[in-house]
Specification:
The chain has helices at about 35-50, 80-90, 135-155, 170-175, 190, 195-205, 230-240, 275-285, 300-310, 320-325, 325-330, 345-350, 360-365; strands at about 10, 15, 20, 55, 60, 95-100, 115-120, 120-125, 125-130, 160-165, 215-220, 245-250, 290-295, 315. The protein is of the alpha/beta class. The mean pLDDT is about 90.
Amino acid sequence: MSILFKPTVINGMQLKNRFVRSATHEAMADLDGTVKDQLLQYMLDLVRGEVGLIITGHAHVLREGQAGPRQMGAYSDAMIDGLKRVCSVIHENGGVVAIQLAHAGIRGIGKKEYAALGPSNLSKEGLKVATAMTAEDIQRTVKAFGDAAERSVAAGFDAIQIHSAHGYLLSQFLSPYYNKRADVYGGILENRARFLLEVYTEIRGRVGRSFPLMVKINSEDFLEGGFTAEEMVKVACMLEEQGMDAIEMSGGTFESGRLVPSRMGTFKSEKKEVYYRKAAEAFKREVKIPLILVGGFLSFNLAEEMVTSGQADYVALSRPLIREPHLVKRWADGDKAKATCISCNKCFSTLLMEEALHCPIDKESK
């Protein structure tokens, strides 16, 4: 049996294989963030596809932190019943699910009643688009993450992932590209990591030591003056010391040009598929907790090689599972052909057209 299909455990959470569905915005909620039936069917497809751990699309912990329309929310007790439905459909079909908790920061959708907040004031073309958070704003947000974590436990999730990647709020604070503060939340790395560590501490205090907590961070920002791979390793060590159970590594921001998190184009060579291989190697030299690696995986053999060699502990997939929710099962059944995803990013363009997440290429072929 391939190492990819051997059971593992993360802080008591039992997983039947090493494949993870990386959090991806599904746009399958009502405008207020309440789960719609469409999301339940989507999750059912992933469970039946035998994905070992499903991580939901980012759920905003405050209305001001909403990244986009029809995003699932965890900011209110009114969301709990819908979140319970997500957990139920996954558990009833033998799956395991984590919720990703997030705040968009300067990428908030910008309703007048919810002004965008970030680490520093931000202006574009002379117009102010984001306001620097006060210390009170930060503590209110820390509490909101804790409140959302309690709702997540009440709903029945098996784990929680904190979103601190891709240029969203906690990632913005980590990055000197965005963070120009001169207080205890800016400047040296220890200060820039303070917000993330406070969120972790708040959530850990709410859910207890035996509940699995994970975080998603950038390998680097791929921006001049941004968060670096060296800093990523140091932050990962801080998180490990505090008791984080696993770290998912991604990379890039919306300002990173061709090195955005969802890069376009496929590769003939498997060696070029893994976007963050060097950063993963640096991580594994210093950090002992499990590494979930996302970014560019299309080939079974490469996924197997990365885990067998110890360069990663889990393989996370996003776009390949949008086109093929049953990809993991196909590989488990013996068909090891490459994922049919062509990394064209047309799946994300569907969100701009106010559609639910899907692969338009696959839809056209049917």
